[in-house]
Design brief:
Strand content of chain A: under 5%
Number of helices of chain A: 6
Helix content of chain A: 55-70%
Keywords (chain B): Cell inner membrane, Cell membrane, Membrane, Transmembrane, Transmembrane helix, Transport
Number of strands of chain B: 0
Largest sheet of chain A: none
Distance between the termini of chain B: 22 Å
Protein name (chain B): YeeE/YedE family protein
Subcellular location (chain B): Cell inner membrane
Structural class of chain B: mainly alpha
Number of domains of chain A: 2
GO cellular component, one term (chain B): plasma membrane
Strand content of chain B: under 5%
Structural class of chain A: mainly alpha
Family (chain B): Belongs to the TsuA/YedE (TC 9.B.102) family.
Oligomer: heterodimer
Number of domains of chain B: 2
Number of strands of chain A: 0
Radius of gyration of chain B: 17 Å
Distance between the termini of chain A: 39 Å
Radius of gyration of chain A: 18 Å
Order of helices and strands of chain A: HHHHHH
């Protein structure tokens, strides 16, 4: 296999694991997500367990991976270099949170739910892509 | 508390973590959905798109695989075993929400996965700040929608 094929296969495996994780954890259900965010209602702790075990696994795994010095199929680790807590970061996060709270969808679960597509989900995905293009224009 | 649902959350979270670790270990990339897919769509980076497209297919095929396996491994609230839950509102609300999610994750350089999972695991101050802010505005939004307006969501 050439390296392009290996990289593509590696990308697929990562996406598949992510999609399996979202499905098994119930994050492909907006009601679970909104239940977690509804701290004044019938609070649903599921998302806390998902985020906790995902961060814990990644925390340990990243250290093992970084200790190796370089990735298996790529020249180097591409990590974010920005440091500033600027308005774009915090304002963007604030807007994202409002959209997340209105719908119960963040980008991963929204895309992973394409197998159960409905008109409202299609509308959300289309608007999300439009939002990405607008953000790109603003950032240029 | 629903212990089975929580246990499935833990197991699913480990899988998400393994995905993030694998992507860093194999390709040296952060497993942030808005970054991977958003940049794929808005920039179509030359020579850097194939793995993103493959990731997208994997992401969509995960839940489909769980459905195909049967055995009720999904974790939809109030529908034990179901895998994909219904949207919590109609088209107008989803259009507004989707625009905010796209705009916000685009400007804020990440979402629940990039900042929330990978960034927190890297102890990145930017990701900690972003995660705190989007959790706060999301909780506030749900509070307003459910307990002050009391409508739809």
């Amino acid at each position: 296999m050439n390296s392009a094929t290996v990289k593509t296969a590696a990308g697929y495996i990562a996406g598949l694991l992510f999609g399996l994780g979202l499905a098994i954890s119930g994050m492909t259900d907006p009601a679970r997500v909104l239940g977690f965010l509804d701290v004044a209602g019938a609070w649903d702790p599921t998302l806390m367990f998902v985020l906790g075990s995902a961060v814990g696994t990644t925390f340990v795994g990243y250290r093992l991976v970084f200790a190796r010095g370089e990735p298996l199929f790529s020249a180097n680790f591409q990590l974010p270099t920005k440091q500033a807590l600027d308005g774009k970061l915090l304002g963007g996060a604030a807007l994202f949170g409002i959209g997340w709270g209105l719908s119960g969808y963040c980008p991963g679960p929204a895309i992973a739910s394409i197998g159960g597509i409905s008109l409202p989900l299609l509308a959300l995905l289309a608007a999300m892509v439009a939002g990405w293009f607008i953000a790109k224009r603003i950032s240029q | 508390m629903d212990w089975i649902a929580s246990l499935q959350g833990l197991v699913g979270g480990v899988l998400i973590g393994l995905s993030a670790v694998w992507l860093m270990g194999a390709l040296g990339r952060i497993a942030g959905i808005s970054g991977i897919i958003g940049n794929l769509i808005t920039q179509r980076p030359k020579g850097d798109s194939a793995w993103r497209i493959a990731f997208l297919f994997g992401l969509v095929s995960g839940p489909l695989l769980v459905m195909a396996m049967g055995g009720g491994l999904g974790n939809v609230a109030d529908a034990p075993g179901a895998v994909i839950g219904a949207p919590a509102g109609g088209v107008p609300l989803m259009l507004i929400a989707g625009l905010l999610v796209g705009l916000g994750t685009g400007l804020g350089s990440g979402c629940t996965s990039g900042h929330g999972v990978c960034g927190l695991a890297r102890l990145s101050p930017r990701s900690m700040a972003a995660t705190g802010v989007f959790l706060l505005t999301a909780v506030a939004t749900v509070y307003v929608m459910r307990h002050m307006i009391g409508g739809g969501v």
